[in-house]
């Protein structure tokens, strides 16, 4: 229930803010004149907003999964597609936040090295590379699901039933039950057909598991989407998850920390820069590092823990829950980074204030 509540609050807070920012940046970029100063930061912010919207658009799938007690309630074909888009948005966010820090660093520390047109072209090329990096690495989800199907259809190759649980699995259409090794099974749970002739091989048949205690009888529709990995899946997934930690999280976070530390130092040593701009830069650095440390850090650390323990940590779903909070925190990055977003927010706040003042003035005149 807590997971579902946090997902719902994140969606309610993040979706309107990201849609507003996306439309503001899109209008800013599309309506610029040929000789106007189209900044590379706006392009990077547009990509970052797109990554947040991608996460928020597929967040209802996670909400439905949490409501179904972490069982996938949709057709199985949607499982790898939804998770591919969801996890890709996480690493797109880390990559583009790092790219934004690099752009800010060069813009302040080396302002005269490149003209804005050359920087814009390099930003476009770098954005395409970052999209390819995130999407190609997260495509392991499709391969992992293939290994899941292989483990289900070929339990001999898996050795543990194909679902990563050392127990008994029974299928009846789309209904199945997995029993742990500690589950007490009575002998009437399984029935074997006797052989009529001595030359006929003995073929056991399995019926649906039934317990004498009705409360223990569970029928789950669906399956654990991208979870409960088998040994075959773990041998493939865990090294690649460690690569995700190193390439798509650790390196971007180190680059971001380096850029913002030197950027703040450069701003503090230049007295001609307005104090308000310094405050915005410090706020941008703080929000970005909170994103890396609080939102994305625990989930990516779970990759390292899983690789060391050779199994998925039990707390990984809660770490994944923190990653969705970045969609509600990123609007502060947009506000600190883009003057177009600040003007749009100021205009919206002024319009709301004028409407409220007019409403209260009308109510005051009615009372008088």
From TrEMBL:
Q: Which GO terms describe its biological process?
A: cellular response to fatty acid; G protein-coupled receptor signaling pathway
Transmembrane intervals: 6-27, 39-61, 81-102, 123-144, 236-261, 282-299, 319-338
- Provide the topology term for how it sits in the membrane: Multi-pass membrane protein
A single GO CC term, please?
plasma membrane
Question: Which keywords are on file for this protein?
Answer: Cell membrane, G-protein coupled receptor, Membrane, Receptor, Transducer, Transmembrane, Transmembrane helix
Where it sits in the cell: the answer is: Cell membrane
- SUPFAM superfamilies per record: Family A G protein-coupled receptor-like
The terms under GO molecular function for this entry are: G protein-coupled receptor activity
Residue ranges occupied by any G-protein coupled receptors family 1 profile domain in the UniProt entry: 17-334
Q: Which CDD domains match?
A: 7tmA_FFAR2_FFAR3
Q: Does the keyword 4Fe-4S apply?
A: no
Family per record: Belongs to the G-protein coupled receptor 1 family.
Q: What is this protein called?
A: G-protein coupled receptors family 1 profile domain-containing protein
Organism of provenance: Gallus gallus (Chicken)
């Amino acid at each position: 229930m807590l997971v579902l509540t946090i997902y719902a609050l994140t969606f309610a807070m993040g979706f309107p803010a990201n849609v507003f920012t996306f439309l503001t940046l899109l209008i800013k970029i599309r309506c610029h004149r040929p000789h106007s100063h189209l900044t590379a930061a706006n392009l990077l912010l547009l990509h970052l907003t797109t990554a947040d919207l991608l996460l928020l658009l597929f967040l209802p799938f996670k909400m439905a999964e949490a409501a179904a007690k972490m069982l996938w309630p949709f057709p199985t074909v949607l499982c790898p597609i939804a998770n591919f888009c969801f996890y890709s948005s996480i690493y797109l966010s880390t990559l583009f936040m790092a790219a934004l820090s690099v752009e800010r660093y060069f813009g302040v520390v080396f302002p005269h090295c490149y003209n804005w047109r050359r920087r814009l072209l390099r930003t476009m090329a770098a954005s395409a590379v970052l999209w390819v990096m995130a999407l190609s690495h997260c495509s392991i989800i499709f391969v992992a699901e293939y290994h899941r199907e292989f483990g289900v259809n070929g339990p001999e190759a898996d050795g543990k039933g194909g679902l990563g649980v050392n127990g008994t699995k029974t299928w009846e259409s789309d209904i199945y039950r997995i029993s742990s090794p500690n589950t007490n099974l009575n002998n009437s749970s399984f029935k074997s057909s006797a052989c009529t002739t001595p030359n006929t091989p003995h073929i056991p048949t399995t019926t649906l598991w039934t317990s004498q205690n009705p409360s223990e009888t569970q029928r789950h529709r669906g399956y654990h989407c991208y979870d409960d990995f088998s040994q075959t899946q773990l041998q493939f997934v865990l090294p690649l998850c460690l690569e995700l930690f190193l390439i798509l999280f650790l390196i971007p976070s180190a680059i971001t920390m380096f850029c913002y530390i030197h950027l703040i130092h450069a701003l503090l040593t230049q007295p001609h820069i307005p104090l308000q701009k310094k405050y915005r830069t410090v706020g941008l650095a703080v929000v970005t590092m909170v994103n890396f440390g609080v939102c994305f850090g625990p989930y990516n650390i779970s990759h390292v823990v899983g690789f060391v323990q050779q199994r998925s940590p039990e707390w990984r779903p809660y770490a994944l829950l923190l990653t969705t909070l970045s969609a509600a925190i990123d609007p502060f990055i947009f506000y600190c980074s883009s003057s177009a977003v600040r003007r749009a927010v100021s205009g919206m706040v002024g319009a709301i204030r004028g409407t409220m003042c007019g409403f209260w003035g009308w109510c005051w005149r009615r009372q008088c």
